[in-house]
């Protein structure tokens, strides 16, 4: 192993030679298929992870259920205290975990650390929530009666997360789920097992110190068979899935068919709209980060850019300059802005989309090919690309599909209504942003005839949401909501309780049953 990699792994006590256990259910184990974690920057194998066999998945799930049976009785503020300790433990390892995200996923240092920060932030939020997960008292129409709506723990929550946010998205789910009194079992992306092992180790320490079962936050690494076992199990009340629309559809249908609950975070196809009155000194860097940040591999990445005719030429010229200035580099090196794509499959998606742009005679303003000189021979580096497809028919696949790569397609519009129509004309509905200084545009944009996405920004890019509001998208993005806002309400089962404390037993609606 290179010293670059072994330094990051040893700082988190991950073995640097040999095999790593990929299952945690109170004990570390794993005797299933070996899964290699491959570094996107150098191509080296970082570790060989021993994944869960079907039996181990089943045992881990049963342990998680048992853990739930005791954990649910811990008062919510005491669960909050556990979350506070998890928060501190993560914060102590912020830099180390951030570096592991950069090493294994490929995102740059500040974003890797930012992801751990996002987990820390949601823990803070959930600590507060643990004292505020209030139900309510409802006025009863019957004398001597009270009606309560009580939030009770839900059960076992399975979190199926994606490679692009291998830490934060689990964090959103774990924090709310634990605050709500549930036990959680995590199936991470098969290509980022080490991030999940490191995070689970940190949490396991805290649980152990508090004499709580480790399976409160269980882990099963593996391929689609492990995911399917969780999705199809009646022992899982809620499946929180982040990934493609294709797999999300399968997960949604499978869980619905057994009357389970889902939270789906699927594809985004996010647009930025720039009005002629926009402050371009904000809009250009905003679109640049939205489209090139994380090498275009956020669900919230900016994929479509709609420019008003009056500023289009100037905007594109300035944006192009920024694109051309960006050099690929090792994501672990402080000043790198562009890391590799996550894996070869991602590079293939980039390549085939570039080919397709060629076949439809799109004008490619920059990018469109590999770097002549990439920092590492075997790294998955690609040039960020801006293209102007000839057609603005949003039904064309160049506009209507999510391409998980740093490719930005631009078009020119004449009035805001047209741009909003384009914004809303795709199947996905995750994030969108409008750049303007005119309050009338803002009102339209955030209102009934405005953007139909779950995240609707003004003078802020499509990506990089804070944890405080609920995060999620509409339409084929799956309608899921995670993180802040009212998202916690999905992690509980609501009990509507009518309590009669009178000496009479009147029926509601004045019904008289003859006695
Ligand atoms: C994702 O890409 O799956 O808003 C999540 C953002 C991040 C989360 C993205 N806070 O870009």
UniProtKB/TrEMBL annotation:
Keyword NAD belongs to the record: yes
GO MF term list: aldehyde dehydrogenase (NAD+) activity
Entry annotation: catalytic residues: 265
PROSITE patterns, A to Z: ALDEHYDE_DEHYDR_GLU (PS00687)
InterPro entries on file: Ald_DH/histidinol_DH, Ald_DH_C, Ald_DH_CS_GLU, Ald_DH_N, Aldehyde_DH_dom, ALDH7A1-like
Keywords: NAD, Oxidoreductase
Record carries keyword Glycoprotein: no
Aldehyde dehydrogenase domain ranges (all copies): 32-494
The organism's place on the tree of life at top rank: Eukaryota
EC assignment: 1.2.1.3
Subunit description: Homotetramer.
PANTHER family named in the record: ALPHA-AMINOADIPIC SEMIALDEHYDE DEHYDROGENASE
UniProt family annotation: Belongs to the aldehyde dehydrogenase family.
Name of the molecule in the record: aldehyde dehydrogenase (NAD(+))
């Amino acid at each position: 192993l290179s010293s670059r990699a072994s330094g990051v792994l040893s700082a988190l006590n991950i073995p640097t030679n040999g095999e790593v256990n990929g299952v945690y259910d109170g004990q570390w184990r794993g005797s299933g298929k070996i899964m290699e974690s491959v570094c996107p920057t150098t191509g080296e194998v970082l570790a060989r992870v021993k994944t869960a066999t079907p039996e181990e998945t089943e045992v881990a799930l049963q342990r998680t259920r048992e853990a739930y049976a005791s954990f649910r009785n811990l008062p919510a503020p005491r669960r909050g205290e556990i979350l506070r300790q998890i928060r501190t433990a993560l914060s102590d390892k912020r830099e180390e975990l951030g570096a592991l995200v950069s090493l294994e996923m490929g995102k740059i240092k500040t974003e890797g650390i930012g992801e751990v920060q996002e987990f820390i932030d949601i823990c803070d939020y959930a600590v507060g929530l643990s004292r505020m997960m209030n139900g309510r008292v409802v006025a009863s129409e019957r004398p001597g009666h009270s009606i309560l709506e009580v939030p009770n723990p839900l059960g076992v929550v399975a979190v199926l997360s994606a490679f692009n946010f291998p830490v934060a998205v689990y964090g959103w789910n774990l924090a709310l789920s634990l605050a709500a009194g549930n036990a959680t079992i995590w199936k991470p992306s098969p290509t980022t097992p080490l991030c999940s092992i490191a995070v689970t180790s940190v949490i396991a320490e805290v649980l152990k110190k508090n004499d709580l079962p480790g399976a409160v936050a269980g882990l099963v690494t593996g391929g689609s068979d492990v995911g399917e076992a969780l999705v199809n199990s009646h022992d899982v009340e809620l499946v929180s899935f982040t990934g493609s629309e294709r797999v999300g559809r399968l997960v949604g249908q499978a869980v619905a068919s057994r009357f389970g609950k889902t939270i789906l975070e699927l594809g985004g196809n996010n647009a930025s709209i720039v009005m002629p009155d926009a402050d371009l000194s904000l809009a250009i860097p905003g679109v640049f980060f939205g489209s090139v940040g994380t090498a275009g591999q956020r669900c919230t990445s900016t994929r479509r850019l709609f420019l008003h005719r009056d500023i289009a030429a100037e905007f594109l010229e300035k944006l192009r300059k920024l694109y051309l200035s960006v050099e690929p580099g090792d994501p672990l090196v402080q000043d790198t802005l562009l890391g590799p794509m996550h894996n070869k499959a991602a590079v293939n998606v980039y390549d085939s989309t570039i080919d397709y742009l060629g076949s439809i005679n799109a004008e490619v303003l920059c990018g469109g090919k590999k770097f002549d000189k990439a920092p590492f021979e075997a790294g998955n580096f690609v040039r960020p690309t801006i293209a102007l497809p000839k057609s603005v028919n949003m039904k064309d696949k160049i506009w209507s599909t999510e391409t998980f790569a740093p490719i930005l397609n631009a078009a020119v519009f004449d009035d805001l209504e047209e741009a909003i129509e384009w914004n809303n004309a795709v199947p996905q509905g995750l994030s969108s942003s409008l750049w303007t200084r005119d309050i009338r545009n803002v009102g339209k944009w955030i209102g009934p005839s405005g953007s139909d996405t779950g995240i609707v920004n003004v003078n802020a890019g499509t990506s990089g949401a804070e944890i405080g509001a609920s995060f999620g998208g509409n339409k084929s993005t799956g309608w899921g909501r995670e993180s802040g806002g009212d998202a916690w309400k999905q992690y509980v089962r609501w009990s509507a309780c009518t309590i009669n404390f009178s000496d009479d037993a009147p029926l509601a609606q004045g019904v008289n049953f003859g006695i």
